[in-house]
Specification:
The complex is a heterodimer of chains A (748) and B (324). Chain A is α/β, with parallel strands linked by helices and 748 residues long. Chain A contains 24 helices and 27 strands. In chain A, helix 9 crosses helix 12 and helix 16 runs parallel beside helix 18. The longest helix of chain A is centred in the N-terminal third of the chain and has 30 residues. The termini of chain A are far apart. Helices cover 26% and strands 21% of the residues of chain B. In chain B, strand 5, helix 2 and strand 6 form a beta-alpha-beta unit. In chain B, the strands form 3 sheets. In chain B, strands 2-3-1-4-5-6-7 form a 7-stranded mixed β-sheet, with helices on both faces. Chain B has a two-stranded antiparallel ribbon with strand order 8-11. In chain B, strands 9-10 form a two-stranded antiparallel sheet. Chain B is globular, with a radius of gyration of 23 Å. Chain B is an alpha/beta fold and 324 residues long. Chain B contains 9 helices and 11 strands. The chains are: A alpha/beta (748), B alpha/beta (324). At the A-B interface, strand 1, strand 8, helix 9, helix 13 and helix 14 of A face helix 1, strand 2, helix 7 and helix 8 of B.
Amino acid sequence: MKKQAITLKNGNEMAALAAKHINFHVMGYYPITPSTEVAETLDAMKAEGEHDVMMVPGDGEHGAAGICYGATTAGGRVFNATSANGLLYALEQLPVQAGTRLPMVLDIAARTVSGPLNIRCDHSDIMMALNTGWLVLLAKDPQMVYDMNIIAVKWGEHKDVRLPVIVCYDGFFTSHQKRRTEYFEDSQVVQDFIGKFEAEHTSVDPENPVSFGTYMNDDLINNKAQQSEATIAAYRVLPEILKEYGEISGRKYDMLTTYKMEDADTALFILNSAGDTAMVAVDKLREQGKKVGLVIPNVIRPFPKEEIQKVFKNVKALCVADRQDTYGGWGGNMTLEVKAALKDDADNKTIVLSRIYGLGGKEFFLEDAEELLNHACEAAKSGKVEIPYAYHGANAGEKGLKMEKVSNPLTLEELSFPEIKKTRNEDGTVKVGAINARNVAGRPKRIAAGHGACPGCGIFPNVDQFMKAIDGFVVTLWHTGCGMVVTTGYPYSAHRSTYIHNLFQNGAATMSGVVEMFEERKRRGEIAKDLEITFVMITGDGGNDIGMGPTIGAAVRNHKFIIIEYDNQGYMNTGSQLSFSTPKGHRTSTSNVGPFQVGKGTHHKDTAQIMAATHIPYVFTASEADYKDLMKKAAKASEYAKDGLVYGKILSACPLNWASADDMGAVVCQKAIDCNFFPLYEVEYGKTTLNYDPEAKGNKVSASEWLKMMGKTRHLIKPENKDLLESIEKEIDRRWCRIKAMSEHPGL
Amino acid sequence: MGSILPNKNELGFYEIRMESVGGLGANVSGKIIAEAGILEMGLNGASFSSYGSEKKGSPVKAFARFCDVDTVVRVNSPVERPHMLVIFHETLLNDPTVTMGITDETTVIVNTKKTPAEMREILKMRAGTIGCVDALQAAIDSKSRINTVLLGSISKASGFLTPDAIKAAMEKAFGRKYAAAMPGNLKAFDLGAENIVFETFETDERFPIRPFERVVPKLGYENAPKGGMVTNPGNTVLKDNTACRQGYIPVFHKDKCVNCGECDLTCPDYCFEWEEDTLKSGKKTVTLQRINYQYCKGCLKCVVICKHDALTTGLESEHLKEGK
């Protein structure tokens, strides 16, 4: 047995530690709770020079899976981690990875699939991956996360297998619970165990060219027969690899973890962390003289059919607990598969009950495990199942209770702002009169108080200022992000106007659908022709990384609505990971600062200019630091949205993740404007106008005056980062000069 | 060998629950005490938090479980019947779930200026031990944070997590990245251990046993609208954000206010209340009346934007009664 050390780490940290010891060549990833910490931990280690894994953030999980696919064709070891809708967004890439027989490892911190949105654990994500051709290992605790990741590499790369492997552990229960765990002190032990990876063919060997991903018709079935053979081979070789790993680690895993099954006549089949809890329940029921046992599978692809037939041979009644549902299949996936396996054993007489439990992270207490076992005990005793399939732990609610209105809907009169004068010029451009805060003071807000944003959050003043300059009814659609999460925690909603949420990346397309239906129903006379609604989609800068495609789609269709992006320079909702809008050198949880890395490596995405290139009627930048400018642009936006799409990028302070003072948001944003980092300008029908020139006003400051106000950038002021600061200043100047020149040119 | 744990539940665990709001460092504290017990003192156990969305000021619970090294950790559910309950912020006591599950065996630590006897009346605690420590003051005195102060108090109250073990875990957690802050952190720890005042109460029959019950949502599958829809939007006004504040509030001086409206446009929490008024000229207008502290999180952006000294920074404890 090899020497091991003890640590206190959670599942995500153990996945990262395993990845460091494996020293994958490339990790392609995209942040999603609760798996994000894997990439964060690896990035923090990278900044300290602890490994060589190249960390590549995707533009979404689909992109991340693409990065991984490309990297595997090029012949090295590849890693990814995701959860829930991230897995589903990447899903179409999974059969490609398996079907073209390129091994890699994907960690899934299991989380429920939306919607409605929920970020906690169940198995509705992983069960969607069962038919993708990937092998699937399960890890019920942080120790197993470390071990299974190492085993996964060797298993998938085995010459008879050559398939990608998922390691699935429970979100939060395992991903975020710190446990006493062991790891190999010398990473060479891991290297020796997994051996050297030799790809059969690579995409970067020009002297031996090959074609990856051909177009197969009748021949495809043969490719799939090979793949099926490989999966069956994987079933055969896994016990050997588990045995070998047991010899070096002292932790010997089997296909199934069984507990007190030797003489059990009643059993529970359950996955991952809930299995541990169920062990305690087995002990309690055994004390009552009940002959109960427990089975927790450690692999579900390939499904351990023979082991299952064997272990349940003498069991009278079995409860299969599924943390997901097939909706109409009369049980969760595990119920159906266990039943199928037992059906193949002609002698088997086990009665099977299906119970759906723990959806959306609902806690699984000891009492729950006892209750599930007791259901099985009753069936064993009576020899029949009263209720074959049911939900365990759902509650009916208080009789007669309804959602009572707390306020009347805002009226058109309350929502009109005649104080803000808008007129059209002859060329179609919009002119807005002076803005006075006093004129709109005390007017109703479209979002109610009591939302859960952090103190000093920039989103809410920005949105309020914007909405105060829009006349009449508004329907908003919010991309997933801080603004959405803190306003709609069930059973609450802060939105007094109608609000819609769809998945992270798909807001602009969804709003296109809303707008089209509104117009079509008006045309058919189903909605009053004079009803006017301004449609506003609100996104963070992160939402418009993953959502850039649908946003450009809405722009090229020129749909009549407004998109505003609150740009707080990162994925703040999930714990401050880098976005493409994070500026160069800024620290985030996936662009750490250390001796080997100084924050984000590339410059920020210029979303306003990308959108200007789509030639929509109106593009603008703004910030709460200058509410008069922002509200003027909002008033213009509401007019231009009658012509087509409007896009506005609004710099929005995040005191928590910028590590700046709660009360200084507007001041920090003003400094970003005064150093020319964030020029305030607008593009009306292709004509660029700079709205504020700090130099002309005598307010110009150096970039360091802005950067020193935030903990996330203070390192950039240090002498050792002088060259980096200069490169940042150079890029700021370059972009500023372009905007200024366009503003001065009559045709641009 | 006997166990060093002073008390264990039927599954063999000594359990700690910390009640806090995001940003006060309860999660880090949980991690440090777990590391102290598990890595420094050779116990087994687990540490985790009630994760949701990662927002500053939102209520958060952190848990630590300890058992002897040969006991296997098999439960993943939150700590419901804590041997020690640590309350990072007094205003959290407005939420009855914060004190859920305390028994006559529980030691409750509260960050407060109050005495244990005064705190017992608020907690309505039948019996048990209460430890009070003014962690905010100790944090200011040591130029550290309240979580490090409370680590000292936790060490003292636990009777088994030794100062050396916790200090060693603190050194590992902060020592390298925040070396300059370490002397202050260690001072804070010592103050937390020295300044905490304990009192143990026998039952005097004034407060009943509180039976433990899990919170069951009032909306369920029979009465909730389909699809997770909220049909009474705007209902966040029923919420109370008081616990988000960290001791400071904006104070409104009506006599200096010119009703310019800039505070209303900068406030993230929509706390400013206006009423209709008539100017001397007879023109209808609105004037600012007050700040609604039910929603104010104390960010003080309004104080920064006010050019007329009509909004100034004040101590919540001096200006507000009962957080309102």
